[in-house]
Every structure is written in C-alpha cells, then in structure tokens.
Amino acid sequence: VAAGTQSAPERSKVAGTGVRDRIMGWLAFAVLLLAAIVWLIPLAWAVDTALKVESETTTVPVTWIPPSGFTLESFGEILAGGNMLRWYFNSFLTSSIITLAVILLASLAAFGFSRIAFRGRRFLFFVIIAGLIIPPQILIVPLFTEMDALGLVDTYWGIILPQIAAPIAVFIFKQFFDGLPHELEDAARVDGASRFRVYWQIWMPLSRPAIAAVGIFIFVISWNNFLWPFIIVTNTDMMTIPVGIATVQSSYGVRYADIMASAILGGLPLVIVFLFFQRQIVQGIANTGLKG
Amino acid sequence: MAVRAETAQAGGKKETAGRTDLTGYLFVAPFLIAYVAFLIFPVLLGLRLSFYNSSLVSGDAQFLGLANYKELFGDPDFWLSLWHTVLFTLLSTPPLVILSLVFALLANRAIPARWFFRLSFFAPWLLPSSVIALIWVWLYQPGFGLINSYLISLGLPEVDWLAGENVAMLSVVIATVWWTLGFNFVLYLAGLQEIPQELYDASAVDGAGPLSQVRRITVPLLARTTILVVTLQIFSSLNVFDQIYIMNTSGGLNYTVTRPIIQYVYEQGFTSYRVGFASAMSYVFFVLVLVVGLAQFAVANRRRGDL
C-alpha cells in the first residue's frame, strides 16, 4: 500500500490516504456512532417514558411512540405536587456557597503556600495534600456525631461546612500559582502593596482558568453529592435534589411516568448548563483531573 | 503528588521573618481551620469512637478496648459486604478504563460532530446518583422493562437483572459504567491532545498505519494519563455506595449479593445506632484503602521510572 507519502491537509491523525486507511476510518466512525447511540438510549427512554400517559408506560411490547400521543402531565404533577422547587433552591443555595467558599479559602491558602516563605509551610502543605487520600465516605459516622453536637443536623450549614474542606482545590491553585511569574508581585511589593492586595488585585484576576476549573468541579460535585446531605438531612424541606429524588420514588409508587419526570427534572439543570458551557466544563474537569 | 521543591523568594526585604510567618499563617488559616474541623477531627473522633460502645441515641458510652474490632472480624456480614465492594471494583475498573480509552481514541480524530460524541458520553456523568438508580431500575424491569422487552422480541430468555443472584452485581456495574465512563473519557481526550502531531506525521512518512501508530505512539505516551485514570477509578469504585443503596432500598435490587461495605457502615451507624461498631468498620476499611493507595503509588512510581 503506497500510503503515507501524501500528507492530509488537515491535522488528521490518519495521515495516510490509502483506501485501506479510509475504510478503517469509516469503520472507526461507525463503531463510535453506534456506541454513542447505545449511550443515549437510556436517557431517550427516560424522556420518552416521562412524556407518556401513565397507563401506556408498561405496554408489551414497548412502544417509543404511544397511541395517545405525548403529554407533559407528569412534569406538571411533579412540579406542582412535590417539593421539587424547594429542593432546587436548597441545592442551588448550598452548592453556590460551597463553591464560593472553596474558591476563596483554597486560593488564599494556596497563595500562602506558593508565595510566602513562612516557617512550616512545607509540612502544612503536606498535611493538606495527605487529606486527598481520606475517602469522605468513611467519615459519615464521626462527622454526623460532630455535627449533631454542634446542633447542625437538618441545617444548611450542616450540609455546607464539611464540603468546604476540599484539599484538591488547594492543590490546583498551588500548581497554578507556582507557574505564574513573580516579577509582577515583586514590583507591586516594592510599591508598598500588602500581600493581601497582591493576592486580590494581581493574583486572582490572573487566575481565571484555575478559578473556573475549581469552581466548575466543586459545583458539580456538591450539586450531585448524595451521601452527605442524605446523612445530615431528615426533614423533607431541607433535602437537596439528589436526596429528594431518591425519596420521591416511594411516594409515587409504581407510577413510571412520574418517576421518570422527576429523574429528568433532577438531572436537567447541570445538563442544560453543560450544553451552554461544554468547552469550559470539559476543560475544567480535565484540568482538575490531570493536575490532581 | 510530590511536594514541589521550594522556590526561594526574596519578596519584601523590609519584612522581618516573624512578620512573614504571621502573614503566611493568616493566609493559610481559614482553609486550615475548616480542614482540621471537618476532616482531621472526624478522622480522630472516629478512631476514639471505635473503642467505645457509643450509640447515637444514648449519651453514655463504655470503653471496650478492641472489642468492636474483634466482633467485626468475626462478623460474616462484614466480610461479605467487603467482598461485594472488592468485586464491584474488580468488575467496574477494567471496562471503565478500557472503554473510555477506546472511545477517546475513536473520537480524537477529524470526525464530524465531535461535540455530539462528547455530549453522549459525558452527559450521564453530570447526573446525580439517584437519577441513575431510577433510570436503570426502570430499564431493568422484568417484562415491560426496555431491556427485557427487547430480549423477548429477539426470542431470547428474559434476565432477572435486579433480583437475580448471579446478575445483580453485573447490573450495577453496567449502570455505573454508563454513568461514569464520561469522566475517564474526558481525561483521556485531554491526554491525547498533549501528544505532539509531529510524532504521527513522522511515523506516517515511515509507512506506519493507524493501528500501529496507536500501539507504538499513543498508548505508551498516554501512560501517565492511564496511571491517573486507573488510580482515580479504583479509589472511586472502592467507595461505591449511592447507586447500590438506592437500587437496594427502593428498586428491588438483590441486597444479599450487592450490599457494599459503606452501606453496611451506614446501616450499623444510622439504622442500628451502633456508632462504635460502625466507626471500627470505617477504620478497617480506611486502612485497606490506604494499603491499596500505597501499592498503586509504588507501582506507578516504578512504571514512571521505566519510561
């Protein structure tokens, strides 16, 4: 095969333009397309079920297009009858506060570790990084005991506070700050700016990529966190979306259209956000993962 | 995660060493306080609780020494749930690493509608665990469930996905692969983008086909990403709880063949109110995670040395 001597004009990984390579390229695309369709079927089926009238959800054989057509009835029922809106609010409030607090506290700490030569900083940084290997799951019992003693069971602070201690965020910010040139800082310091002003007016504006990466990652993780809110909240009004969704099922019995409507409403916010900020979110997740 | 070598700073010559220390502590303190209060303290409290017969309902607790640990090691439910966690990790890690790599390799070429593929594989990762559990319990229903309905119309026997003793764990693994593959996929895509195009161009001039390029260039150069993906995957698989618990309690998933260790900790601590016993179990599991972590670290370091 006389492939490979002509180079393709675009930056293609398949540089050879031989017939065999082209067939393989199409084959690879077909496999990928098939996999993507398989991946989308569960979501499509959930949406399809939610749009049916209840009596037509369990027909055999299954139908994608129901005889009586599609309806938004189940969505209406879930939004009107349940606590969905309250759970949205709880999730949005707690995830926002957690995200802002993590960005602020972790970047302050990382600035200290990266830019200020104080005694014991290597040891303290090591202690914080060691926290990465503590699975939050093993802390549920003692953490609940602690929060109970503090009177924080069934409160927003009870949900928020433990999720602020995120060592990964300190690590990401420190990596980013280590890579910034410190000439800027030195110049500002000579002009008499305080460390805090350097951090706030020079470092933070330069750190938008790190802030976005940490912010997106922490927001998604805390929005989807099931275990901790499930442990610390018993009152239905204080539940977050993931916890509420898991409990709503029992109250709807075997009404599959309603169950799927609540599942879709529960998953929708982050998927919509993702559709708008696809590139930033993927980049943020990849950066967080690769550098952590 | 090695601590970086210090880059000595000459910033602020007028500042005394004591003042520098104080400024440093002030910057680090807010995070450190949250870290100590909600991570370090519970770790230590858990250790203390594990030596007592503490309970969430009554205040008094007696010191038991190692009795909780002794009971734990003789408890068949502990060993069984630990085995379920290990089995889940063994079954979920290979497909989650290999499939995500294959999909990333296939998607990282000049193909139309790349955003569509990224969306299909990544979107499930953005859903909360409870949504995953609801969707998959619905898909796995006997008779009218989508999967069984298709099996029947193909003339194949139905599978008892949720209650079946031999398939229940597999069902959880399938749902989990569908749910979290997108995260590894994105890490691999990012890793692929760091491989310089020149390497491919050069090997194409030498007559290398796409398959041998993948074998000789892509996979070896992705070693760093693979180590990361495998490490994160084992860690998150070992901590499995959400989807199994939700499918167990409200979806009819076979409990006796799937309940993971974290779920047993939860039940002991919050349903039986045996805080001391649950803490002891958390600790034993923590030590296991640490051992696995250290083993991985050692392997990863040796691999890195080979490159």
Protein architecture, described:
The complex is a heterodimer of chains A (292) and B (307). Chain A is mainly alpha-helical and 292 residues long. Chain A has helices at residues 19-50, 73-81, 84-115, 121-130, 140-149, 156-164, 167-178, 183-190, 195-206, 208-224, 227-232, 241-251, 256-276, 278-291. Chain A is built from 14 helices and no strands. In chain A, helix 3 packs across helix 7 (167-178), helix 3 (84-115) runs antiparallel to helix 10 (208-224) and helix 12 runs antiparallel to helix 13. The longest helix of chain A is centred in the N-terminal third of the chain and has 32 residues, at 19-50. Chain A starts with 18 loop residues before the first helix and ends with a helix. The model of chain A is unreliable at 1-16 (pLDDT under 50). With 307 residues, chain B is mainly alpha-helical. Chain B is 70% helix and 0% strand. Chain B has helices at residues 17-49, 67-73, 76-107, 114-122, 129-139, 146-153, 168-193, 197-205, 210-221, 223-238, 242-250, 261-271, 275-306. In chain B, helix 3 (76-107) packs across helix 7 (168-193), helix 7 (168-193) runs antiparallel to helix 10 and helix 10 (223-238) runs antiparallel to helix 13 (275-306). Chain B is globular, with a radius of gyration of 25 Å. At the A-B interface, helix 1, helix 3, helix 4, helix 5 and helix 6 of A face helix 1, helix 3, helix 4, helix 5 and helix 6 of B.
Largest beta-sheet details of chain A: none
Q: For the record, give the distance between the C-alpha atoms at the N and C termini of chain B, rounded to a whole number.
A: 18 Å
What is the oligomeric state here?
heterodimer
Query: How does the helix and strand content of chain A classify structurally?
Result: mainly alpha
| Structural class estimated from helices and strands of chain B | mainly alpha
Instruction: Note poorly predicted spans of chain B.
Output: 1-13
Which regions of chain A are unreliable across 5 or more consecutive residues at pLDDT < 50? 1-16
Helix and strand pattern of chain A:
HHHHHHHHHHHHHH
